[in-house]
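Protocol step 4 of 6: record predicted structures for both targets in the notebook before any analysis. Target 1:
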Amino acid sequence: MKSCRALLPGFLFVFGLILSGRAQSPQTPALRRALARATADTTRVLLLADLSATFRYSRYDSVQHYASQGLELARRIGYAKGEGRCLSRLALLQAERGNLPQALRTDLRALDLHQAARDADGTARTLNQAGLLYQALDDHRPALAYYFRAKAIYDHSPHLDDSQLVSVLTNLGSTYVGRRQLDSAAYFLNQAYALTTRSRTIAQSYWGNPLPYVLRELGLLEAAKGRISLAINYYHRSARVALPENDRRSACRAYQYLAELYHERGQTDSSIFYARRALQTGQTLPYVVGVVRTSRLLADVFAARRQRDSTLKYLLIRQTAEDSLYNPQRIKQLDAIGFAEQQRLQQLEDERVEYAARLRNYALWGGLGVLALLVLGLGYYNRRQRLANAELQRLNAQVTHQSQELTTQRDRLAEMLQELRTAQQQLVLREKMASLGELMAGVAHEIQQPAQAIHNLAGVSEQLCQELRLELVKGEELQPADLELLDEMLLTLARHQAKISQHSQRAGSIVRGMVEYGGSQPAARQPTDLNALAEDYLRLTYHDMRAKQRNFHAALLPRLDPAVGTVEVVRHDLGRVLISLFANAFYAVQERRQQTDAATDDAAEYVPQVMLTTERTGPQQVRICVRDNGLGIPAEAQPHVFERFFSTKPADEGPGLGLALSRDIVHSLGGMLTLHTEPGAFTELVVTLPVPALAPLSA
């Protein structure tokens, strides 16, 4: 089902392209039949205007064709109402192609004709179009003024086209979204959606079904409210509903909004997918404003990806589209003087006759002027060519110089990188030596126990040997009871010797571990009892902490999984990681102990605890967890705990390399080091290693 949903937008787009081959809305055939039957010229003018409107979002050349035919016929028969409506259709076409100043002038001429003919429907529609011109420039105040004027006409004339009232309501909601007045936007957009769903006349309107536009702007509202999933749903619904209407402009805008939404969310691939679809659809009209926005988005996305060819491609598309637009500042100026220009039209007509007379006089001088301009233009062109060649030579020399500088900088960076690697190795060695020195007290404590046991057992063994000699001196006088005693003494002596061997091996193992830990050469993986290794380093680190702070005590809670068994690891590398984790754990519980001692209220309740847990989590994976009930790590410090030279300890407590180096070591072993903490409660560091089991340990 999910795969079907994922393929649905692509299918709809292909189906839309098939429909676009027809380049007409569902109302077009009926209007063509009516035009073929019409005999009155006035009726033909109005039908031509309506027929051009059916192509408004699918084929602009057809809009131009039918509107121009209607305008010519209307002017020939002196039909002001039809002339105004055809001019309004041409203004719509000019606006869609990006010629906003010309569209405004045409709308103003059409408004005069509508008002002279008392055409309420035409007046309301043209006012709505004028508002759209200012909305395209994000100039919301005059846009709202035009929309409310249009809405007032529809409110007082309920018999007019419902689809155009829906358009006005939707434009009001869209403008309020742009002004971030979301409550007002929701009010008008909900009105538009309710009217669209309940109206029975929208399907017969030559302007088509406005539902794609309403759904798209509802999606824009939901996006502004942060409800992304609802916005995406509305955009997809808008694209689907636009297909039967062949409303390629609405489909283009829906894809454009989807692309912009995915771009804001960082979903670059989805953004590119819908932006390309929007651009392709917009170019078929061409819908210039949509082409500008989608090409700008695609250029920005590919620039961020450093794909220069694609970036240049879409920058050229954007530049070409923007060149067809006028300066927005000029639009605002035209708005201020627009109606004044209408008052000057008559004066201009009077001046036209005088201008025609003067034009004949200026024709000769104009021809000479053109020749002079051609000469000047050729001279200017030659001069620009020379300057361009000189600039190219200068830039070539500059590029060569910069290339040499970049080569030098590259060599310097390589040297600095080698120096940094050397410094890093020295820091690792220094950290290793420092931690090795800190462990000496714990090592001494650990070696002292087997050494003392060896000393005691050796004394007992010596005493047993003397007693054996005395018994053997008796010779033949030995009784069966004496023989049993001798046998028991020999067994005791054998047990003591075994214990002496065990403790000496224990001391030797500790010494070998320290030698491996202090070695600078890379070591190979060795079969290791992971539980014993982790517990040894836990106790070594604990005794080292005790040697530094006599009053320090903590509960050691080893929970060792026998299933871990014997695994192949690099002992001294893993040992360095464990020492760092244990040292941090003991430091944390000591700090909390000192704080609770200072508070005195909770001192008796707090018991420092350090828990060591080992676990085989899978056939090829083991897990070592070190958890303490210390102070935890503050939230603001958690993102930085694995950074080099970062530490929550005082400056004299260490350079802050422990956890950073530990993570590097674990990564070199193919594992992961992760952190779980709650400030004031606990800190848990988990080492996960991918190692196969060699053999499980016997209980």
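Target 2:
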Amino acid sequence: MNILRNTVACASLLVAMSVNAQTTTLYAQNFNSPATTACPDWGGAGSASSLSTDYNGAGQTGSATFSQIGTADRVCWGSPGLNTDPEGTATPYSGGFARNGSVVESWAIAFDPQGKPFINGQLDLAHITPGNLNGIATPLTNYPGTASSVPMALRFFRIPAGSSFNLAAGASTAVGTPANPANVMIAGVAQTPLPESGMVAVTKDGSYSRYAADWNVHQFSVDTSSFGVGDQLAIVGTVIDNLTYIVFDNLVITAASAPVQPPSISKHFGAPQVNPGQSTTLTIDITGNGINSVNGLTVTDNLPAPVVVGNGGVIANSCGGTLAATAGSNQIQLTNGVLPAAGCQLQVEVQWPMAAVAQCSGSAVTNTIVDGTDFTVGATTTAGTNAQATLACPAPPAPPVASVNCTPKTLVDAAGQSAVCAITLNVSQPADLTINLQPPTASPRYQSTCLNTIVIPAGATSATCTITATANTEPSDGDVTATIAIVDSASSPTPSYVVGTRSDSVLIGNDDVPLPPSTPSPVPSLHVLALLALSLALAGLGVFRVRSHQD
């Protein structure tokens, strides 16, 4: 971390403490005036024996009790050309401690919170490779210092009034495995660490310089509201990884007059429901303690199936650290975040995939971030309330019902004989809808405009095709039937229509009737002629007699 930035941050915090009537500085030590200033005495018992005095030496505010395991050191930055302590003072001194194999060093201070219900702490830390410190020309090879981040245990213990304490190493572990943090012992009994205890990450810049300290400001908060008069709070630091050296500086402890609100987390989606393939914004809000920033913010959000991160990924992050949100993933993760006093916010685009349309039922899925598991803020006690939000995908509307009806049902094989077949929907659709058909079988007796598909335009409820009889005068070609049918829609992902009246038929009848056979006129026979002559003779005789009487 940049020295100037650390200096400004530290100065700003001290100014804030002096003007804020609700805070009190309980302890502050920058180690710039150690009891022993001989730099060649760094490391080992020579300087370790003076650290207790250093913790209560010149330039400090308040008092504290010191304890250690191993030989926690006074580090002297021995060359003006080297990166010095965070303030860059003319007397560059820091504290230091390490792990080398089975030797695990630890330090502790204990102070009285003076009846304050809540304390806040700040500590500068750096992971280094000792070299050219205190005039040593050759870097120490037993502390390679090439890891970009190493863990340090930071634990808190309550020391009852009138009790004295000492440190005891944690249970031994094999070299190459993480060490166990040191314990506070009172009268031979190991004490239980307070819930704010945990690990902090001490980082080193990518250059792994043997001659510089990449300082990081680590902040912590502890609830001391249950402490009695004269009780002390012990702060214990332990190096965890093998062959690791950590330096520390600028320890500042302040107290709040009233307990601050513990950090909490909440979340919500930008819309209560989305359609398949649509996205919305997931917002995660984290409240701060209102007094100071706290390192070590982590958030893991496992999205409920089928919700995934959208193509937009991360929209906003005011929590620092690294926010991972890969498109198509079902996990959002923030690591190494910093929670400001006023809180911070994460925003990520999430989507209900089109491929999950079958899971759209209108019922919501619940998204939960578990406080204490998915949400932690370093060693700080959080509110203990899970963050939940729900997102739904509405059930798709029922597909329209497609039916077919032909009018008229009967034609004859004469000119101008046509039937209209209407493919209808029970409800119009917002887009063109293609209906699959089984058209009439080809026949010379009719022509059809009904093909394999027909399109019902958007907003309409029908489309038509025709069956037209072929005119002829053939009396013996009989009747034929033209049948049209609707074929089912594909069902993936959902059918675009269902079938009502599936088929209809049109009869083309034969109207050509054959003529009856012709009958020849009969030729009169001789008998008929004789009868005719007799009739004429009788008629003539009758006329003659009538005239005779008249005469």
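Step 5 preliminary note on target 2. DSSP finds three helices and 35 strands in the chain. The mean pLDDT is 81.
Proceed to step 6 after PI sign-off.
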